[in-house]
Amino acid sequence: MNRRGVPRDTAAAAAVVAGVSVVIGATESVSHVSNISNLYIIAIAILAARRGMYPAVVASGLAFLAFDWFFIPPVHEFVVNDPSEYVALVTLLVTAIVIGHLLSVATARADQFRSLQRQTQLLYEVGQAALASPQLAASFPLAVMRLKQTLGLTGSRLLVRDEAGLRQAAAAGALPDVAEEPEWLQRVLDEGRPVGVWSQPRNNVRVLRELDPVDGDLVSTEGGRLSQLYLPLRVESRVEGVLVVGERTDGGAFSAEDGQLLLALANQLALALERLSLAEQQTRARALEESDRMKTALISSISHELKTPLAVIKASATALLGQEPVESASPGRELADSINRETDRLTRLVGNMLDMSRIEAGALRPNLEWVSIADVISDVLDRMEPVLVGRRVTVTLPPSLRPTRLDFVQISQVLTNLLDNAVRYSPAGAAISVSADVVRDQLRASVFNEGSHIPPAELERLFDKFHRVSATPGGTGLGLSIARGMVEAHGGHIWAENVGRRGVVFSLTLPSPAPPADAVIDPTAAGAPVARS
Questions:
Q1: CATH fold for the domain made of 369-532
Q2: pLDDT confidence of residue 529
């Protein structure tokens, strides 16, 4: 019951009883009508249907007294001569109270049903608009407008988080501008809890505190009226927006059902924000996928076109070198030697791009055979001897190393890329070590270089295509990505880690089950550590 409506309800009850008493008095002055007291019951029933239980009970008591005072002999006294009149008076009182109670309950339930129907309609319309509209953001203005109409609010707003903070996505009605509101919004974003602001007009004080709308916690113990309500829109553990709700236009308080509606709408808007975010991410992913597809097609096309001219340049440079004596230091030989070296580098780059295209197309199929990793390492070091000039390379292998099923060419390419990366991104003269062993049916090979360090945040991204650690010269960002693709095609895993501040080690593992009886490895392929400089 609203305490502010008690005086009006009491006055309404007195007015109804007075009016009926006048009618009964006028009628009795003309002729006596039996059971005329039923007019009180009819009036009290109408009053209960309109204003509720309290005025109906008050009117019942007043009708009991008025009928006794004005119409039961002796009049103008609360005394009854005929005992049967006591029955009439008590019947009047009890009947009026019971009928008033039943009608007030029925009216309250009907009002509650209509309220729930309006709330359900609101949630349905908002949900339907969010599902039907190709632009989810178009459903936000409808949501705040229908909320304002359903609860009879002075205004409501929807604020959505973006890179700059909170922006207004939709608004309906008018809400007062309060200087402290940015602080209140930040509190909701940080804590993720609903807060209410109660205003006390007498001393112009605002009280802010957390609340739980579901429990009907919408009345302040300090008094005042709830002027604004801030509901967070939570997406998982992050607050992505705030629903701002103004006070009711009739000055009434929010019920527990209103609180449940507000939370349900806030959850529905949060789901819409989540769908909007997922749709934007999907759009960006499709754009990136299309960009990668076009980039891959372009790289593949260019790489194929470059193979022939590179072969011609290589042949021409080799022919020029053959015409000059080995001991010659003529400018022509130096120029031919420079062309030959750069052609080899460009050929490796084109080969990397073609390998990347095959990996992304899923066309990379390892040709597995029983191979000793020692043979692979030896072959790679022989081919990279010109690149490793000035470096001390240590190879550590166990005395006997069983063979592993792998693609010789592809794993050679992986180790080549790892060694090239070690040379490129370590200080000049820094030592490099290569090791391999088979433990528990897993082949593990590592390439360690001294003097370099990778920021921890970059370790996971090192193997992404075209990714390079910032502030590092040269490179295309393809070598490690290709190495990962080839290792994963073997069913293996590759990663990088810092060894304190001493350097960086790149490691890979490949499945290495026990070989069949006819797979024999040359014992000279492995042995004591080997040093190269």
A1: Heat Shock Protein 90 (3.30.565)
A2: 41
Please report, for the chain, the start and end positions of each structural domain, with discontinuous segments joined by +: 3-117, 136-281, 303-360, 369-532
Per CATH, the number for 136-281 is 3.30.450.40
pLDDT of residue 109: 77
Return the structure tokens found at 515.
């070989």
Q: In this structure, are residues 352 and 478 in contact, taking their beta carbons and an 8 Å threshold? A: yes
Which amino acid belongs to residue 149? Answer: Q
User: Are 136-281 and 369-532 in the same CATH fold?
Assistant: no
Distance separating alpha carbons of residues 262 and 218, to the nearest angstrom? 12
Tell me which residue of 497, 488, 487 sits closest to 376, measured CA to CA: 487
Return the percent helix, strand and coil in the chain, to nearest 5. Answer: 55, 20, 30
pLDDT digits (tens, 9 = 90+) for 80-114: 666 666 666 677 677 777 777 777 777 777 766 66
pLDDT < 50: residue spans in the chain: 521-533
Q: Output the six-digit token pair for 204.
A: 């112009």
- Write the secondary structure of 22-75 as one string of H (helix), E (strand) and C (coil): HHHHHHHHHCCCCCCCHHHHHHHHHHHHHHCHHHHHHHHHHHHHHHHHHHCCCC
